[in-house]
Amino acid sequence: MRLLVIGGTSFVGRTIVSDALGRGHEVTTFNRGLTGKDIEGVEALRGDRSTDEGLQQLAGRAFDAVIDPGGLVPAHVLRTARALAESAPFYAFVSTTAVYQAWNTAGTDESAATWPGVADEDGDPADLARLGVRKRGCELAVEQNYGLDACLVARAGLIVGPHDNVGQLPWWLTRIAKGGRVLAPGDPARRLQLIDVRDVSTFVLDQVEARAGGIHNVVPDEPNTTMGRLLDDCVRATGSNAVPVWMDEGFLFSQGVQPWAELPLWLPDGPDTAGFWAVSGAGAKAAGLRTRPFGESVRDTWEWLRSGGEVQTTPGALPFGLSSEKEQQVLAAWDARPAA
Ligand SMILES: NC(=O)c1ccc[n+]([C@@H]2O[C@H](COP(=O)([O-])OP(=O)(O)OC[C@H]3O[C@@H](n4cnc5c(N)ncnc54)[C@H](OP(=O)(O)O)[C@@H]3O)[C@@H](O)[C@H]2O)c1
């Protein structure tokens, strides 16, 4: 197939491009030339889809499908979808499960209420505070121009794997590789649901090749690891002597430790988050999604980091992680706490 990938140089797009080339497709990428490098073997077009003039390079070109892995601003996606609706008959958009409004129950499926996105909303891609609303606006921009039969909306859950451009798993791997006693949050049995970027890529390309339109939550059908297993996998992958020290959430709050931002992937228990790691992936599974064992994602992410890989976060993303000074203070406070 002749595939056009918008972007294609960072994480999800990069993986899709590399896999598409491996499948023998002709791949054209379209980006500004600011992030990463185009993968060898693509035809690289330069342009900026934040303006009408920026899409000129696409005029007069025809493709079998467009894949848009990184759209964050509805107006940019709308412009792209409008420009290509006549020249590329299928559009695959990588969205996010953040489009759903509520996380209070497990089993959120594709029919759950989404944020009210607006297809022509413009703005700064670095403004990530309204990610869910804006990604929904991007979905609508594609749906309005292609119709649901000719577009794939792949609502990915939290994505991990080589070339990660967010940084949660890389932070844990890097911390654990340093060894020693590691502050570990909450209940080690808390279940997590994480998807490998290569499984997202395989699913998207399979659907594109089959021209199978529809909306899918691209997540493992069941939570596929726990916080405890994740840290154990990190210890195994890095060969470290690290020993997790599990602390209850109340203690961590009393020490001013920030969930998620300081200890990545730690989302405290609560009624509003009960379904966060238990989204339904049944629809994608029925459509062919297969997910690898999570330990493989941890191992391969470490291999990537060890071979010089660096997390290149997107503009607007906040850095993750607890400082080692704060971690030592909290560990000391834990050791000094009065016996229960
Ligand atoms: N990580 C997660 O846990 C997670 C979870 C759910 C969903 N997602 C979604 O997955 C996607 C990840 O995308 P990615 O960053 O990995 O995609 P990518 O395609 O690998 O990288 C983003 C690309 O967009 C290009 N780009 C940015 N602004 C542009 C513009 N104005 N015109 C043309 N090209 C532009 C960048 O290149 P230039 O800068 O050179 O133009 C870059 O090549 C996002 O949509 C995210 O919402 C992520």
Automatic annotation (TrEMBL):
One Pfam family, short name: Epimerase
Gene Ontology MF: a single term: aldehyde dehydrogenase (NAD+) activity
GO cellular component, one term: cytoplasm
Residue ranges constituting the NAD-dependent epimerase/dehydratase domain according to the UniProt record: 4-210
Protein's name according to its UniProt entry: Reductase
